[in-house]
Each structure stands twice: as C-alpha cells, then as structure tokens.
Amino acid sequence: MPIDKTYLNPFKASIDDYALPKRFTFPFYHEPHPLCVLAANELQKHIETQRTWYHNFGLSANKKGGVGKMFGVLLVRSETNEIGYLSAFSGKLAGVNHLPNFVPPVYDMLQDNGFYKKKEASLNLKNKEIETLSANPKIKVLQGQLNDIKEQARLSIQDIRNGMIENRKIRKLKRNTGQKDLGNEAYLKLKDELAKQSVIEKTELKKKTALWNHKILEIETDLEKILSVIEKLKKGRKEASHSLQLELFNQYQFLNRLGEKKGLLNIFKNTVQGIPPAAAGECAAPKLLQHAFANGFEPLAFAEFWWGQSPKSAIRKHQHFYPACYGKCQPILEHMLQGMTVDDNPLLKNLSEGKGIEIVHEDEDLVIINKPPEMLSVPGKHIEDSVYSRMKVRFPDANGPLIVHRLDMSTSGLMVIAKTKHAHAFIQRQFIKRTIKKRYVAVLHGLIPEDAGIVELPLRLDIDDRPRQLVCYKHGKSAKTEWKVISRKKDKTKIHFYPITGRTHQLRVHAAHRDGLNTSICGDDLYGEKSNRLYLHAEWIEFTHPKTKKVVNFLVEPNF
C-alpha cells in the first residue's frame, strides 16, 4: 500500500538539538515532549495565518457564538527515517471533517453519498413530520377543553360532597332528636326515611361522577387519536436513530501497530457503559494514530492543546496542553497502543512514599494532622498508602472510622482524625450542617484585580473525563466559595479561600473556571499547569470538640 505523506509536516525550524523520545507518551497524564511543543507552536501559527477556512474560536473582539477546539500533534518517523508531525482536530472544524494539513477522520460520516447522510435525511423528514403534527392547533384546543372540564368536574363533585356532609349532619341531628322525642315506631320510620335520603344522595353522586367521567373520556379519546400517531412516529424515530448509531459505530475500525483492527462496539463492550459514548473516535488522538498506522509512520510522541474561547462547563484555556480524555479515548487508545513501548503511568506511582505526617494535636478523641501534598486521604484503586492506612497503623485501638473529611491528594494541610465512633459522628454532623469553619491558602497565576468576592458555580463529575469536574447548572450540586486576596507579587496572587460547601475540586474549579476567578491555582495539573506541587493548603480549621463541647481551632501555615 502506497504511503500517504500528504499530511506529514516537516519541521520548519531545525530539530538537530532535540533528543527524540525513548518511549511513546502516556496519553492520560504527561508533560508534552519539547518536539511536540515545537510542533504545536507551528500548528498554532498555521491556524492564525491560514485563510483557507474560517471558524469562530471566540478570540476576536466579537466573541459571540465562538467555540474553542482541541487540536493534536503526533510526532512520527517515516519508513525513510524522516521526522515530522501529523495534525488533527477533535470533531468537526469549520463545519467539516476534512481540511488541508489535518489528517482525515477514522470514518467520515459527512460524505455526501454515505449511508449516514441519507439516513440522517430520512430522520430529518421524520422530525419535520412530528413537528408538523405536534403543531396541530386542535391539540391545544382539546388540552384546554380537557383542563376546563376536569376543573368543572372537580368543583361540581366537590359541591355535591359538601352538600352531602351538611345533609349528613342534619340527618344525625334528626335521628338524635327523634330518638328522644318520638315513639319507637315513629323513630324507626324516621330512621328508614333518613337512610333512603342518604342512598339517594350517594346514587346522585355516582351518576354525576359517571357523567363527568364520560365527558372527560370523550375529549381524552379525541386527543389520544392525534397524540398516538405522534407517539408512534417518535417511537419509530427512536428505533431508527438507535439503528443508525449502531451502524455508524460499526464503521469506526481502529488499527494498532500490530495491524489489528477493532470496532467501536467491540472496544466498549466490556466497559462500564457497555456502548460507546457520543462522538467516540472523533478526538484528535485516535485520528492521529489511525493515520500513522495506516501509512507506516512510527508514532513517537503526541500532545493536545486547546485553541479558542473557554467552554461554559469544562475548564479549557487557550493554548494550554491537556491529556486525552478517559471516557471516550481510554478504551480506544488501550487497543491502539498495543505493541508499543509507552511511558509508565505516573498515576500508579506512590508519590507519598518517604513523606511523613505531622501530628499537630492529639487527645483521647481526635487527632489533628498536617497532610503533606501528593498523599491520598483514603486508599485509591491502585495505591493503598494513605492518611487512613497510616492512621490505622498509628492508632490500632481507635474504634471509629478515623477519616471524618478528605483533602484532594495534591492538597496539603489540616485534617481531623476521629479516634472514636462518638467523635466521628459528632464532628461529621458539624461538616454536614456546615458549622465547621475552614480556611485555605492558595497561590494563583496572574494578578486578581478585586480584593474579595464570592464564587457560586454548581459542580458535577465529568463522566467522560474522570476525575475532572464540570460546571453544570442543570445537574450540578451547589458550590459556594468566599475568597480574599492576601497579597500580589509579580505575576502571582496569594489568596484565602473560605469554602462554604465541600464539593470535589471545588476550590480548583472555582479558581480556574472562566466564570470564577478565571485563573488556575499554581501547580494544578488538572485545571492548569503542572509544577513542583499544587499551591493549595488547608491552613486553619475551627469546630466544636466532641467531649469538651468547646470551640477549638488549629493553624498550620503553608511552606510556600
């Protein structure tokens, strides 16, 4: 098969002084290789200067409608030992799948004569038919009549019931009076007459109820005749859409270095979700590797960067590098990287090895510790070493769950450890009721112009890119953070955070998100740029002691 070098970009600058990577990039946690950074810079220059296509990235003065995009570069070596790079974008760009200088998609669903476009057109006709039928003015008329008749029926029946209650009281009074004033035969006759009145009223209620139900049923039947046609069409559309999605998934066949092909449905078969998520296979990394394997290029390293305006939910900053996403890419890349020598997963390394835990305070009920950065609060999936495991060894006679609250692995600072079940429950209640006061210190990139403020951005897990969090107003949990500037120095701002709620990554997201402080905490490898550590420290905590019932507080300043 002839090699397609159409998309192979030679470096414009000299790369003689660069060392080639020894192993391929671990896709989900890495720092870009210098040659990938150089390739990214050249690609960014091309994006800025090309005039072949237009896409609104939201970088100009008029940001309305702007959409940022993830781009990728793959450092490769050809069979003739040429070193260059391939470029790709995630999803579509400028409304299309194919653009000059960018590798093609694994499968082009937008090709004019392809099955997808034809079946999509058929689905669009179904949508239009459903829209037309749903716009039938008779539906609103009947729905209005139905609501009116139901309300009339409710009021009418209620009036009858109210009358029955009053009549029941009158009959009771008559029975009581008759029992006192009438003879036995006259009293029995009165009771019989009153009982007949009760039966007549109940019969009348049944007749009225049946009459109203009949009127309601007539309108419901007319309405159902129209809606059932729409529902049948919707069901057919759903089945056709599902069938089209499965057919589309089957078109995505991914290569690896061993020459093996594997389809999307097969790749995701044994995952938690069982089926591929939407747009799986459309990210830059699979596109790049697919083109490399299909054309005999040896992949050496890769990197992805964001170009354009930050999105509303996820944290993406213009020109910042990001790893591949777990949800969509991990199963695909696991197959595609078989047969390749890949960097070790740094997330499997115990970074807390050799680090000690400082005891700030200890009594019969609790312990206050100063957790070092890069130590888990509780055992992880792959790493057992944690605050919990160490406290378990240190206090073998403790009868409580020990861990009352957690800090992110990368965050240092104060944690409360409960030695007894009573202490654990007592302090945990304070966390639940939000009566515990906490203060964090952080160093942020850039200069924050305001002196203080509040960030309120609801958060939820990004299921396609765990453990990252998203800002989500629809499904997110409320999250609130007060903040106050401590100092500004050069291009950094030191700040106090006062979390009102305690969501996962709350301070990190509230700092980095465009609708928060719009700048990341220094060293934040998830939402900013990696450094020697995350510059976030839980320095002060105040709560009511479980035994003395007195308010206590503890302070440990950060070492930054």
How are the elements arranged and paired?
Layout: E1 9-10, H1 34-49, E2 69-77, E3 83-89, H2 115-134, H3 137-181, H4 184-251, E4 253-255, E5 261-263, H5 264-267, H6 284-294, E6 298-307, E7 321-322, H7 326-336, E8 358-362, E9 366-371, H8 387-394, E10 402-403, E11 412-418, H9 421-432, E12 437-445, E13 452-456, E14 459-461, E15 469-471, E16 480-489, E17 492-499, H10 506-512, E18 536-544, E19 551-555
Parallel strand pairs: 11-18
Antiparallel strand pairs: 1-3, 2-3, 2-6, 4-5, 6-7, 8-9, 9-11, 10-11, 12-17, 12-18, 13-16, 14-15, 16-17, 18-19
Helix pairs in contact: 2-4, 3-4, 6-7
Characterize the structure shown.
With 560 residues, the protein is α+β, with helices and mostly antiparallel strands. The chain folds into 3 domains: 194 residues, no CATH class; 116 residues; 206 residues, Pseudouridine synthase, CATH 3.30.2350. It is 36% helix and 19% strand. It has 10 helices and 19 strands. The strands form 4 sheets. Strands 8, 9, 10, 11, 12, 13, 16, 17, 18 and 19 form a 10-stranded mixed sheet that branches. Strand 8 and strand 9 form a beta hairpin. Helix 2 packs antiparallel against helix 4, helix 3 runs antiparallel to helix 4 and helix 6 runs parallel beside helix 7. The longest helix has 68 residues. The model has no long low-confidence stretch (mean pLDDT 94).
